[in-house]
Amino acid sequence: MLRKNKKGVYTLTRLAPFKNLVCAFSTRDFGNMKPFSKGQVAEVEKNRRNFLKTLGSKNPNVVTAQQIHSNQVALVGKNDSGKNVTGADGLITGEKGLFLMVFVADCLPILAYDSKKEIVGIAHAGWQGTSEKIAENLVWAFQKLGSKPNDILVGIGPGIEFCHYEVRNEVVDKFTTAGFGKMVLRSLSGKTHIDLKQAVVDQLVGAGVPKANIDVSLKMCTYENPDLYSYRREKEKLSGEIAAVIGLLAGRQGSKDEK
Ligand SMILES: [Zn+2]
Question: How confident is the model at residue 254, as a pLDDT?
Fold first, then answer.
């Protein structure tokens, strides 16, 4: 379940009990997190720093992904700090003190954590990445580092829900071919919508992650929540994207205590 904490950021209850785990989503109050043009780079940097400071990290090492709607998950380390990894929509690391970030305005941010192996991962998933199985690839990337799917907790952050996700035939075809025909919904008025969150959950379960390990932010449609940016709602007036971040703080022990 998604909830807003007293710092004004969204967190997921399933991932909240780990004291050394930073896992959160920004809101419009923190400003735009992704530069649309070169002129916005400085402002975005400031916004990201402010957001991460709020989360308790003063000098964070951040890695981002190019986000091209691919299914690629890149293994990164501290050497990649400050990089925007080309050709990737997902990132994974076993290193502490490194924060992985993706940016969304309707697409889904997927955050994953293995508390036994101390590995964190993140992915950006729209209909294309989902059809190309980016969630499955994220689980596979954990397995390559020695994780068992049973030990992976996954949080799916705010994104567009089926109520406002009308799609064209090309999307329906691709989604159906990818095995998500059940997530295509037709309204009485003849419009076609897809349920991206359910498709991602199905994909994760298919990859071996127990359903009980998956925390989905239901009833948190970006189109309906003025706290969040929405490409569909704002169209050409879209002025930003929120950040989703996951990382392990360096030099602290894990704890089951509530934050
Ligand atoms: Zn909606």
Answer: 44
Could you read off the pLDDT of 34-75 as tens digits, one per residue?
A: 998 899 999 999 999 999 999 988 778 999 999 999 999 999
Residue 161 CA to ligand 1 centre (angstroms): 5
Instruction: Say how many Å lie between the CA of residue 202 and the centre of ligand 1.
Output: 20
Instruction: Specify the pTM.
Output: 0.94
In a domain, 111, yes or no: yes
How sure is the predictor about 96, in pLDDT bands with cuts at 50, 70 and 90? very high
**pLDDT higher than threshold 70 for residue 255:** no
Residue 174 inside a domain? The answer is no
Domain that holds residue 33: 2-160+213-248
Gap between the Cα atoms of 27 and 211, Å rounded:
27
pLDDT of 105 > 50? The answer is yes
> Is residue 101 within 8 Å of residue 48, measured between CB atoms?
yes
C-alpha angle 220-222-223 in degrees, rounded to nearest 5: 120
Q: Which 3 state secondary structure label does DSSP give 157?
A: coil
Which CATH number is 17's domain given? Answer: 3.60.140.10
Ion ligand 1 residues within 5 Å by Cβ: 161, 163-164, 221, 223-224
Q: How far apart are the first and last CA of the chain?
A: 15
Instruction: Give the torsion sign (CA, 132, 177, 170, 238).
Output: negative
Ligand 1 centroid to 72 CA: how many Å? 28
Domain count, the chain: 1
User: Is 125 inside a domain boundary?
Assistant: yes
Q: Give me ligand 1 centre to Cα 233, in Å.
A: 10
CA of 26 to the centre of ligand 1 (A): 19
Q: Does residue 258 lie within any of the structural domains? A: no
